[in-house]
Amino acid sequence: GELDAVERALINNLLEANETEIVEIMTPRTQTRFLNVEMGVEEMIEHVRAYRHTRVPVFRGHRDNLVGFIHAEDILNLMADGVELSRLSPEDIMHPPVVVPLTKKVDEMFDFFREHSVRAAVCLNEFGGVEGFVTIYDVLTYVFGDISGESRGVHLYQERDLNIYEVPGEMRLTDFNNLTHFGLEDPRMTTIGGVAFRYLDRLPRVGDQVIIEGMSLSILEMDDHRISRIRVAHAVAEEALSELEEEDRAALMSETSRTADMSTVEALSHGADLSSAPVVSDSSQGSSADEVDETIPSVATQRQQGRA
């Protein structure tokens, strides 16, 4: 018989998982919280409780030298059994790290996790450096979509209406396209900020703008050398928006923005698994490009007519 939409989507995701490398779904090390093995066990446990992640990586000396993982369930068991924590060393509560190369395909991770009886792995580059972490949750989410039962991601962006989005620079390109249906693609970069950086071909600055496939990417905020916030819009919408006077723009933004409470970002990340990296699922769709052409210019037109 015919396949319904859900069945077609699952088959398509499985086929793509055979071609997609885990670098596209991993959590980068820059967005991961670590523990230093030199800490005492009690201090480690305090950090784990504060981080609220089920797996926390532990390093010695520098973060490329991983020595293990702390599992939240082990901590709970120790506290429930009334174990005297001061008598334990970090080695007593750590699990050895399991590593995987960046080139491994997403669909191969199902067998990998089962064979190694783990739910998280360290992604290493060819020079032995830690690039990030991948979990079974990442793999399941890639294939089956958001499995948490919650609409994640609405706290991570501002939709400025009329196909104008303000998002974190580290948002994954696949998540951004799921959110906006803009269809931006890049052969190398995996984040929306990375795409802007590649086209700029230099260190980005606040106010920089690039046009890619009819889309305008504007740098809103920088965190040292990293693009921390970026606005993406159809080029015609961005051009019309820039023509508005400041008071008109402020009024338009205040009326149409869906503002996020960024304090909840960490609780939404990877089911509170390894890091505070944002992961966004389908949440909203902008209006069509035709609507953009007609609507934004009309705001400026009304303003001009009012002055006349």
Mind telling me which CATH architecture of the largest domain this is?
A: 2-Layer Sandwich
Q: What is the spatial order of strands in the main beta sheet?
A: 9-10-13-12-11
CATH class of the largest domain: Alpha Beta
The total tally of domains equals 2
The beta-strand count equals: 13
Separate helix tally: 12
Low-confidence stretches: 256-273, 275-308
What distance separates the N and C termini?
63 Å
What value does the Rg take, in angstroms? Answer: 22 Å
- On the 0 to 100 scale, the average pLDDT is 77
Content of β-strand: 15-25%
Largest β-sheet summary: 5 strands, antiparallel
Descriptive keywords:
308 residues, alpha+beta, CBS-domain, Uridine Diphospho-n-acetylenolpyruvylglucosamine Reductase, domain 3, 12 helices, 21% strand, globular
List the helices and strands and how they pair.
Layout: H1 5-17, E1 27-28, E2 35-36, H2 41-51, E3 55-60, E4 62-71, H3 72-80, H4 90-93, E5 94-95, E6 99-101, H5 108-116, E7 120-124, E8 130-135, H6 136-144, E9 158-159, E10 164-168, H7 173-180, H8 192-200, E11 209-212, E12 215-223, E13 226-234, H9 235-243, H10 246-256, H11 265-268, H12 289-307
Parallel strand pairs: 2-3, 6-7
Antiparallel strand pairs: 1-8, 3-4, 4-5, 7-8, 9-10, 10-13, 11-12, 12-13
